[in-house]
Amino acid sequence: MHLAYPAVLAVLLFCVGLYGVLARRNAILVLMSVELMLNAVNLNLVAFDVWLRDALHSGQALTLFTIAIAAAEIGIGLAIVLAVYRNRGSSAVDELRDTAEGPDDPEDDAEGAATEEPAPAEKSQKSQKAEATA
């Protein structure tokens, strides 16, 4: 068997997965696209392992580890998507940007008021005292 056949198939799978990650808005479809990309890598690992006739079958062993990591990733990813869907009512990736805490958060403004820097007039009085003592 030629190495070109599985390599071309792996490139096609990886490109479809990459398109899915970049173009999709639904978080579940993004996770499925990541799985496609990982399966393309697994196909390459097994194809090169067979082509090189490795006695230890390290490509196949690494593929098993990759499958285990992908299963853990999809389990954790689906749990996060489910939690976000319960809170937001949507699993769109574009709406997840709102979950990050930023300066527009009203709770942060209340906490930040106590730790703000002094006003410019107070600053100048403090700097004048520091210069006077120095």
From TrEMBL:
Major localization listed first in the record, in broad terms: membrane
Record field: catalytic activity: a quinone + NADH + 5 H(+)(in) = a quinol + NAD(+) + 4 H(+)(out)
Subcellular location as annotated: Cell membrane; Membrane
InterPro entries linked to this entry: NADH_UbQ_OxRdtase_chain4L/K, NUOK/Mnh_C1-like
Endpoints of the signal sequence: none
Keyword Nucleotide-binding listed: no
Region Disordered, annotated ranges: 92-134
Ranges of biased composition (kind: Acidic residues): 101-111
Keyword entries, A-Z: Cell membrane, Membrane, NAD, Oxidoreductase, Quinone, Translocase, Transmembrane, Transmembrane helix, Transport
Residue spans of biased composition, Basic and acidic residues class: 123-134
Annotated Gene3D superfamilies: 1.10.287.3510
Compositionally skewed regions (Low complexity) per UniProt: 112-122
Membrane-topology descriptor: Multi-pass membrane protein
GO molecular function: oxidoreductase activity
EC number: 7.1.1.-
First-tier enzyme category under EC: translocase
Transmembrane domains' residue ranges: 61-85
Subunit field text: NDH-1 is composed of 14 different subunits. Subunits NuoA, H, J, K, L, M, N constitute the membrane sector of the complex.
Family according to the record: Belongs to the complex I subunit 4L family.
Chain's role: NDH-1 shuttles electrons from NADH, via FMN and iron-sulfur (Fe-S) centers, to quinones in the respiratory chain. The immediate electron acceptor for the enzyme in this species is believed to be a menaquinone. Couples the redox reaction to proton translocation (for every two electrons transferred, four hydrogen ions are translocated across the cytoplasmic membrane), and thus conserves the redox energy in a proton gradient.
Annotated protein name in UniProt: NADH-quinone oxidoreductase subunit K
Protein's organism: Streptomyces durmitorensis
